[in-house]
Amino acid sequence: MQGAGVRRIIIPALMIAVILVFCGCSDGAKPNQDILKIGDETGDWGFPSPYGMYARGPGYIRMSLLFDTLIWKDSQGQFVGMLAESWNYDQQNNSFTFHLRPKISWHDGEPFTADDVLFTFNYMQQHPWVWVDFSFIESVEKLDDLSFTISLSKPYAPFLANIAGTLPILPQHIWQDVQEPLTYRQDDALVGTGPYRLADYNPSEGSYLYEANQNYYGGKVSPSSIAFIKVSQETTGPMLESGAIDAGSIPADIALNMEQKGFKLEQEPPVWAVKLIINHQTNILLAGQSLRQALAYGINLDQLVEISQRGQAEKGSPGLIPPANTDWHNPQTFEYEFNPSLAESMIEELGYGKGQDGYYDKEGQQLELELAVSQGNLERDAQIIKSNLEDIGIKIDLVSYEAKTLDSKIETWDFDLALSGHGGLGGDPESLNRVVIGKDFNSVRYFKDQQLVDLLNMQIQEMDQDKRKEIIDDIQEIYARQLPSITLYYPQWYWAHNGKADIFFTPGGLATGIPIPINKMAFIGG
Q1: 339-343 long-range contacts, CB within 8 A, separation 24+
Q2: Over the stretch 219-272, which tens digit does the pLDDT of each residue have?
Q3: Cβ neighbourhood burial of 438 (10 Å; 0-12, 13-18, 19+)
Q4: Rounded distance, CA 249 to CA 483, Å?
Q5: DSSP secondary structure string, 381-427?
Q6: CA 9 from chain center: how many Å?
Q7: DSSP state of 282
Q8: Cis bond leading into 223, ω under 30°?
Q9: How many CB atoms lie within 10 A of CB 310?
């Protein structure tokens, strides 16, 4: 690598040691050529059992290599059989009947049957699993060892994607004795039916090593090993070039350069949202709609896209669903054009006046807000937002946290403003329910507008797609005006890889819409 401005990247010795161990290269051993090494900036995404994984997309992906669902998505985004070989919907009875593949075994050799499926549904209703809404399940009835029927209490449009294609099936013979699944970390907690088994997990180093399940029912599994290695985005490019890793997410500004060097690029549709989360719940200043709207007029989204993201992003829609989701995006949603003067007028209508320091105050109380951000790339966004809002007279205190700490603060409403993001917006619009009235940290948990809540509950029960689209258009319009969060932009992300495995972004995302190109279908049947 030559030329002005190019910095030398030094790979830490500990990272090299991890790579050597994973490659089987230590102590003069012959390198394992059939290992796919994937770089990941965060590293640790939790113990990869259904209950131990960290509840974000990368945690689910690591778990999905071990545990299969009834159905899955292929490279075209179409549902294909996984544990189930066929299924059908009975509209009259509002039920789905599944027929399982024969002769499937768990990793420990025990046979897989419909009893495991029935157990999983019952167990996860007793021990709620955050990724699946079981409230629509009326009953699960076994027909024989390889077939069963799931009856719904009312229509549920995203059933295939968000239940059959998301719920990992558990082995009854292991989990029936587990009383505290969230803290269960024994080796048998990782026994699934999936294409890989876990060989090593080091949370302190953020590393995982998987080995192929040689008895996988879906066919040959290749590569024989997959390693996830903690790698900063800054070092991903050089490590790809050196062969230390085979795939990883790269900064958009080096994508073309990596392609010119012979690496394959996978380009994700911009469906992952970066949002300014607003504490409308416990912060009395932000509980009112007017100040939230003033914030929207005072933030320059074009500046975020062009400067922070170097043009590699799409400006956010106030209705949340991105334009890239052509099936459900409402292009007529109300927009907030950058207008600092209007933002100031709206603040002054709330009784604030500017002091000599240029910041608004009312009755001796300065209009001051804390902006929380996780350490990393979003800090550039935070600096721009701080500058924008201080220009219109709002004092901003910028505080940086480790990513999981910030998630925890958002979950407990211990913040004023926070920069965060999530995927799932390219798939089924049930994602709106999860991120608007859901219960976890990815949700704004906004229940103040009853019409919005009613429409959200209505849309997931509407089986007619045209009628459902009309409801979702209305949801986006109401959300845009209520503004419990401000959608800043949808980043354009790239992965680069050397072709060792045919990784790909799945149209609509995996499971509930995860936009990560590690679809296990790429490793099956090769």
Answers
A1: 339/297, 340/297, 340/298, 340/388, 340/391, 340/392, 342/294, 342/297, 343/294, 343/295, 343/297, 343/298, 343/392
A2: 999 999 999 999 988 899 999 999 999 999 998 889 999 999 999 999 988 999
A3: middle
A4: 31
A5: HHHHHHHHHHHTT-EEEEEEE-HHHHHHHHHTT--SEEEEEE--TTS
A6: 29
A7: T
A8: yes
A9: 12
